[in-house]
Every structure is written in C-alpha cells, then in structure tokens.
Amino acid sequence: MEVALQPLRLKQLLHFASSKANNNPFIIRNIRPFFVIRCCSTTTSSSSAATVDGGAPRQSGRNRRPSSTSTNSTSDREAVRAIRIKKVQELRSNGLDPYAYKWDRTHTANQLQEIYRTLGNGEESNSESDYVSIAGRIVARRAFGKLAFMTLRDDSGTIQLYCEKERLLSDQFEQLKTLVDIGDILGARGSIKRTEKGELSVCVNSFSILTKSLLPLPDKYHGLTDIDKRYRQRYVDMIANPEVADVFRKRAKIISEIRKTVESAGFVEVETPVLQGAAGGAEARPFITYHNSLGQDLYLRIATELHLKRMLVFEIVVEPKLMQPTFVLDYPIEISPLAKPHRRHAGLTERFELFICGREMANAFSELTDPLDQRERLEEQVKQHNKKKAAVVSEMSKAEDENESADDSYNVTLDEDFLTALEYGMPPASGMGLGIDRLVMLLTNSASIRDVIAFPVLKTLQ
C-alpha cells in the first residue's frame, strides 16, 4: 500500500508512524514534495517502526553506526512479494486478469513526445484523433486526494500518466491507488495534456494491469550497481538501467549492418559446427563434452577458419518448392508448460504447430506470463521426471548394461533464475520458433537434415 501525504514536518511524520507501529509498521520515503508511506512489515517493534529509504532503523545523535541491511532487505523483499500476491488474488476475485493476453497500443512514449512537442503548458488535446493508447512499465508513482501521477516507461522512453478520479470509470481510481505498484506493466488510454510544469501526459480515461509484478525494483536513486548481479540478472539490469538495453539494440543494428555489407559484396553466410570431433584453436584449452548418441567426445569450437575455408569448394543450389501447410491447434497444458491457458477452452493452451509434408516446421504459442502458474507447471514436470528417474534407477540393478540405463537418470531442477525474471513482470507476448534447417530441406527437396548442414556431427571413422 502506498499513500501520499501533504508535506509534513519529519518529526510529526515519525510520530505518526510510531503511534501505528504495533498494527501497521511503515517505511517512510521522502519523495519531494511529498512523503510516501509504504507498508513494509508486520513484525517491526515500535522502537524501530520508522525507517528511511528502506534501510535500517533511524538512529539519533552523532554516534550513528552503519548497520547491515542484507537481512532487512531480504525480509522486505519477501514481505512485498506476499502483499503483491494478495493483490493478484484480489484482482482475480474482482474478475480482472492480472496477466493479460494482449493490449492494442497506438503510440510509443517517444512518438507522443515527438508528435506533441509543440503543445503548450496547460494545454490539452482531446479531439478524437488525440485519443491514444499506450503501454509500459510503471517506474514511479505518487498519489494524493483525487489525483495521481505515474511515470510509464516503454522501449522508447517515458511519459507521464495523469490520473484524475473524475475521468476514470467506476472504482478504477481506487484500484489504481491500491492495486498498481511500481514495476507493474500497465496499458492506458486517454487524451494528451501538457501540465502547467511542462510535463507531457496521457490523461487516463481507462487502464488495465497487463502484468502484475511480484518483486520490487532496485532502489530508484542508486539503481542496480552490483556488477555481478547485473550480469546474472540482466532482466533487472535493463529495467533499472535503461541505457543497457540501448547497448544491446545498437549491437543488434551493428550485426545487421555487417551482414548487409558482406552480403552486398557477394558473401554467403555459413553456420559452422558448434561441436566438432577434433579440438582446434592452437594453445586454447578446449571444452570437452560427450555425445551420448554417437558415443564419443566432442569439443566446443574455438576457431572457425578451417570450416569456412572448406566452404570455398562447395556449390549451393536452392530449388524452392512451397506446399500447403497444416496447422495443429490448441495443445493440452500437460505438454505445453510455457504456453498461456486457452481463454475459451479449459485444459488447453493457445498454441499451434505448423506441419508441411509430415515434418514440423514451426511451433508458436501465447507466452505464459503468470509466474505462479509457471512455477506450478515446472514443479509438476520435475515431479514427473523424478518419478520416471526412480523407476529407471530401480531397473538399473536388473539391467545387464548399467551405463545404458543410467543415461536416463539425469537430474532435472527448477530454473529459479527464469522464474525470478517472470516475477519482475513480463509483458504480454507470443513467440514462434521456425526450423530453419527443416525449411531449407523443404525448399531444396533434401531427404536428411545432414544434407542442409555443411558440417553435421558424425561418428569418427575407425
């Protein structure tokens, strides 16, 4: 719960928080020109109820000692998560889906900033053509009385949401204040206004929570500064540090331009094998793995020059031949652990697969964005695997070749980092995987996938 107050003397505010400590402890954060009170924990004593910036209890006098906040941070994180899970349940009890299937966006934040750059302070454009729809993550919020401001960030930039109680239907304003948190992904519709202070804003007439975030974002002012954590949790890094995503966009454009340049010069792109039968790369120490089907060691590639040189003696001939596709729709949940539940048919998912000439060419589905549902499905998968593994292990003593039976007794664990990423909030999305090699097989009328891979992995000749 977040509630904004009119400016008060800090001493009065601390007294207010302390008086409520037994039943409703608080964290107090100064967000100029407002103080925001955020519910934090239900176990804090009255002597330490008031804390500043989510840290340790505030101490008076000159003899303050810095104290570790790692334990508090962990407990605060879990407390926030518990509160937000309750909000997910409340949304569902009100007939609202906290993990939407889609949202029709008309503009990005940057597009609106450009289109309405000449709009004067205090002016509002509310004609039919100025009615816009936008979506993004809430990265800042403040609310007081019948007015609330939120900063929405999408992949292009930020824009303010100007929320007045009178403009919103029914009890949406109360939902906005009580159920929307920083980190949530929101869709909003409304007209365009520039405030008296010059902030371009969407005057919200309606909104929808597209993805309810369960975990708090890094501190607004300090961001995510731990280098190791930035690398391990890149999804948080890109939320806390928007410039990081710009680096990856530039990288993608650089690679695209390089590809265009070499292709325009007549070069052909070739995929060299990632795993090969002989170690290469001069003095570099190779990574060794074992190929179960082939029964041999393989080495992770280091140098690609030799394979590329071999390509100089090949000739590439492509004979396109398209055929009528067949789509298989709506797979059961049990075999589609990453797909969204079907919105009309219980027990099924929104998924299709494309088959051509009896071969699977593509697999696509609405991405599951509910982290709790995803966790339950993956836990069920691990449970089923462990049951199968137990059966395999019990048969190992009976098998003549124990190594052959042991091949199926590998461990499967939950990908906690993936589940954590979902808990930060993933926007509505769909995904498709296209089998490039199988498509090439179709277009070249090739009988085997090895025919379309320049350097397939093969058994070593004796």
Produce a short descriptive summary:
With 462 residues, the protein is of the alpha+beta class.
The radius of gyration is 28 Å
Helix content: 25-40%
Taken in chain order, the helices and strands follow as: EHEEEHHEEEEHEEHHHEEEHEEEHHHEH
Q: In which order are the strands of the major sheet placed? A: 6-7-8-10-9
Strand content: 15-25%
Please identify the top-level CATH class of the domain at 109-211: Mainly Beta
Uncertain parts: 1-71, 315-322
- Assembly type of the chains comes to single chain
Largest β-sheet summary: 5 strands, mixed, barrel
Q: Which term fits the overall shape?
A: globular
Catalytic activity: tRNA(Lys) + L-lysine + ATP = L-lysyl-tRNA(Lys) + AMP + diphosphate
InterPro entries: Aa-tRNA-synt_II, aa-tRNA-synth_II, aa-tRNA-synth_II/BPL/LPL, Lys-tRNA-ligase_II_N, Lys-tRNA-synth_II_C, NA-bd_OB-fold, NA-bd_OB_tRNA
Pfam families: tRNA-synt_2 (PF00152), tRNA_anti-codon (PF01336)
Keywords: Aminoacyl-tRNA synthetase, ATP-binding, Coiled coil, Ligase, Metal-binding, Nucleotide-binding, Protein biosynthesis
Give a description of the structure.
The structure is a single chain. The protein has 462 residues and is α+β, with helices and mostly antiparallel strands. Among the domains are: 2-58 and 68-93, no CATH class; 109-211, Nucleic acid-binding proteins (OB fold (Dihydrolipoamide Acetyltransferase, E2P)), CATH 2.40.50.140; 227-264, no CATH class; 272-311, no CATH class. 30% of the residues lie in helices and 22% in strands. The protein contains twelve helices and 17 strands. The longest helix has 26 residues, at 371-396. It is globular. 18% of the residues are buried. The model is unreliable at 1-71 and 315-322 (pLDDT under 50).
